[in-house]
Amino acid sequence: MGRVSVATTSNLTVKYGTFTALSDITLEIPEGCVGLLGPNGAGKTTLLKAFLGFLDPAAGSGTVLGLDIQASGREIRQRVGLMPEQDCHIPGMTAVGFVAFAGELAGMPSEQALRRAHEVLEYCGLGEARYRNVETYSTGMKQRIKLAQAIVHGPKLLLLDEPTNGLDPAGRVQMLDLIRSVTHGKGVNAIVSSHLLPDVERVCDHVLVLAGGKVRSSGLIKELKRLEGHPVDVELREASEEFARQVEAAGAKLLSAERSVYRIQMPGLPEETAAQVMRAAQAAGAQVRGFHVAERSLEEAFMEALGG
Amino acid sequence: MASPIADLSYRSYDGPLLPPTMRWWVVAKSVMRLAIRKKGFWVWANLSYYWFIILAAVFYFVDVLAPTLPGGANPFFSRIVWKDQFLDAFSIAQMFLFIIALLIGAGAIANDNRSNALLVYLSKPCSKLDYLFGKWMAIFLILVAITGVPTLLFFVYGLLSYRHYGFISQDPALFWRLLVMIPVPAAFHASACLGISSLFNQGRMAGATYAGIYFLSLFFTKAMVVIQIIAMDGPRGDPSRVPSIVNTLFYASVDGLQIGLAKVILQTDGGHLLSGPGGPPVPPAPNGWLFTALYLLACGGFLAIAWQRVRAVEVVRG
């Protein structure tokens, strides 16, 4: 069954004056948690703003949750939650007042907004600090309250712009766990814009790489990381030249050898390769410690997409 | 291990959502809620109607204690122009209204600029128009209440107590004129606060700028009073000797614009009840059309500035 798109664009071009921020982009963002990757200035934030109906495209069109981004900005913003990159709050408000107000702005009746504000603040780990003025919050708490105001009205799509900005390692892990728990199995889709690849890899299933206002690559993370020809990594107890000779004699191609790890490519299925590797190891008197299908890192896939 | 007594995992909201329109009222309510929490607001709001209290006390004691001529006519009340009393109280309240406007309005947009609050407002189904109109309406409604409540209470007091001294018969349309006059300063301050506030990232800077404009223009009109007195050969001189341009420039201030319009609306030149003939000169009401146009131009100008400055996204010019 094909995946349903939560957002699409068709030949979308967005310009700021004479500067083209997005150039003729056609894409489909599937359900689930999607990472929007790209270097600074790639057009990630612009794409999010276009999805919210903030920008008038110079050309092309787009939809979010089936609604046209040019004609239905308000309806889109009612169904979407934005966690902006910058610190943002409403001065003079307590956390619970702020989140309830965000809920009311989204259209929740005031009593429900207040009740729900308490709920999401608990969920985001701010239950104890809910009556404190947001201006007194630490950076980590401000990030959490941005998430709380984005999810208060139960959006179907979350737009998270650099959600781990300014967080220490522990805070970053907590924030990513929060995002993962909201976006997996709860019916909430998310687009996570970031230039931090480990963050995206931790929470997303699918990525879209933007650079210079164009889509450079998109797909499931595991597919992007997959290498051509299904090579395998074989880890031996210790390096063995005899093992290398044996696998080459069996018709395999030795792609790399780093300490005791050999990357081998053989025609045929990985199961057949495994059998060949075991035979070669036996013949070479080498002890196999590990065997798995080789894949590149997301960083390598990203650099390749950027043409680096 | 103890388990939590409540389910703290994320649950989606499946309650009602109101149609994505009319968000300005949510914005207005929040600004009003924050404004009335300030102690200073209540202090200045209560001071703003002190002249009505003095007038009510004076009228009460004069009515009760002063000699009455045969036939029931009190000479003090017989001289009173009732709408001038409203104009006096309105004029005296202007400074207080300005201070309250600063308190509640100077940071209306500036503080949001500082804390990037626009991203919160505009990422929800709230348009720029909702945002600005909500902010404007909040300041407007508060100032209308502060001007209107004491004015209308005093009107009711006069209606109940001094009808036989011409309270209504002097100007049967007085009530309607008051209704038109009450929102004049509220609309002006609301527009000015938004326009000036939108130019800054700090409420204090916006407040200082508005205060600068207010006091410089007030100083200018005080200079016009001095020129008037010189032209008249002293405060008891002939007011007709004052050049009309000086009389017009007397109103060239934030307060003056509103007092001038109030005179036009009430159709009176005004007069001082307690200062007698030795008091400061009372310039005649200004040209109604000119002042209405200036007032609308000023309000519109400030709102245009705010409209230009409030943006959902930063614009990069290539």
Describe the structure in your own words:
The complex is a heterodimer of chains A (308) and B (318). Chain A has 308 residues and is an alpha/beta fold. Helix content of chain A is 37%, strand content 28%. Chain A is built from 11 helices and 14 strands. In chain A, the strands form 3 sheets. In chain A, strands 6-7-8-3-9-10 form a 6-stranded mixed sheet, with helices on both faces. Chain A has a 4-stranded antiparallel sheet with strand order 2-1-4-5, covered by helices on one side. In chain A, helix 3 crosses helix 4, helix 3 packs parallel to helix 5 and helix 9 crosses helix 10. Chain A starts with a strand and ends with a helix. The N and C termini of chain B lie far apart (60 Å). Chain B is built from 14 helices and no strands. Chain B is globular. Chain B has 318 residues and is an all-alpha fold. Chains A and B meet through helix 2, strand 6, helix 3, helix 4 and helix 5 of A and helix 1, helix 6 and helix 7 of B.
What labels would you give this structure?
heterodimer, A: 308 residues, alpha/beta, Alpha-Beta Plaits, four-stranded antiparallel beta sheet, 11 helices, B: 318 residues, mainly alpha, 14 helices, 65% helix
Write the layout of secondary structure elements.
The complex is a heterodimer of chains A (308) and B (318).
Chain A: E1 5-16, E2 19-30, E3 33-37, H1 44-51, E4 59-64, E5 67-68, H2 73-79, E6 80-83, H3 95-106, H4 110-123, H5 139-151, E7 157-161, H6 169-183, E8 189-194, H7 197-203, E9 206-211, E10 214-220, H8 221-225, E11 232-236, H9 241-249, E12 253-258, E13 261-265, H10 270-284, E14 288-293, H11 298-305
Parallel strand pairs in A: 3-8, 3-9, 6-7, 7-8
Antiparallel strand pairs in A: 1-2, 1-4, 4-5, 9-10, 11-13, 11-14, 12-13
Helix pairs in contact in A: 3-4, 3-5, 4-5, 9-10
Chain B: H1 24-36, H2 39-47, H3 50-65, H4 75-79, H5 82-105, H6 110-114, H7 117-122, H8 128-161, H9 174-181, H10 183-197, H11 203-232, H12 244-249, H13 254-266, H14 288-309
